[in-house]
Amino acid sequence: MTLKQIKVLLIEDDEEDFIVTKHFLKNIKTCQYIIDWEKDFNEALNRVILQEHDIYLVNYDLGTNNGLELVKQVINSGINVPFIFLTNKDDYSIDNEAMQVGAIDYLIKSKVSEDLLERSIRYAIGRKKTEQALIEANTTKDKLFSIISHDLRSPMGSLLNAIDIIMDSRNDIDPDTLSQLLRELQKTTKSAFNLLDNLLTWSRSQIGALRCRPVNIQPYHIIEEINIQLARTAKVKSISIVSNIEENLEVLADPNMLHTVIRNLISNAIKYTHEMGAINIDAIEEADTVTFIIKDNGIGMDEIILEKIFDPQLFESKKGTNNESGTGIGLKICYDFIARNNGILWAESKEGEGSTFFFSLPKN
Q1: How far apart are CA 160 and CA 132, in angstroms?
Q2: Which pLDDT tens digit goes with each residue over 268-321?
């Protein structure tokens, strides 16, 4: 059986103490410890910032400096890694200070054993993972609330304004103005509904309320249904949507998740394509997988935006060619759903020349 590897950086200016600690780690049989040693304060600080290790064992005394200052600098720079202090001093005040600056544990060298060291490392790594998960969850929650309060509130306000105008002027409003207001109502309602649908889907996905149930399905029928649903939106901009997917093509995927992915990708293509533009949907069938291709000739993206579009912690989206709003949350859903169905989603784009989204799914 292959043992789990744990990379350790031991920050220690006493070579004898380093040898003793290394001996303890090498004798632990539950994991394979890969141990690096650094005795210089500045060099150690640089190595911690690189975040190449799973755990950092820091000696309290580091020549003219001390480990507390090193941890403070790391924490203040926004880096979240697990620290354990090692010291010869049995002093509660130092223990308390170590915890306050961000260390997870404090071990007295004369009392360290293999079992104690192993438990401390396991606890520190586990706790830091939990903390990071909570930070990410809170970031997502805050962003969702921000979207709800800003991006959803704005279209709802537009809806209310349009309805108020119609109600206040219903007896003398001219047909052309009424028609224009109704078109705006329709556009805003669709935008708000799509945003709300994505928010609810993303929220359910994040709390584990959505289960992936892959079955053998024919994407042709899903794409046809979506194209009918989006036909009016595409017609407003005179955009043609051409699907070359064969009817008998099958993949193994959750039907609802696949529907959500394709709907979001085609909706985005419409949003970022100019009037009289074109969207093409193709598929490449291989031995074990099918790769779907959704290509538009719209405004495209530069390299900076392209690198960020699937980042789960970033919710950014530029306006569409008709000033359509967006949050970027739809692409996060697509990436998540394709991954759950054992597939891969990626994109290629060039600013001013359009974007192409690819996703692969297993055939069975």
Answers
A1: 41
A2: 999 999 999 999 999 999 989 999 999 999 999 988 888 888 887 676 677 788
pLDDT grade, residue 14 (50/70/90)? confident
Look at residues 10, 132, 7 and name the one whose alpha carbon lies nearest to residue 70: 10
The number of beta carbons lying within 10 Å of the beta carbon of residue 169 is 13
CA distance 125 to 127: 6
Q: Would you call 141 helix, strand, or coil by DSSP? A: helix
Residue ranges of alpha helices (H) inside the chain are 15-27, 41-50, 67-76, 92-101, 114-146, 153-168, 175-206, 219-229, 231-236, 255-271, 303-308, 329-340
Phi-psi region of 298 (alpha: psi -120 to 50; beta: other; left: phi over 0): beta
Q: Please tell me whether the overall predicted TM-score, pTM, comes out greater than 0.85 for this model.
A: no
The number of beta carbons lying within 10 Å of the beta carbon of residue 80 is 12
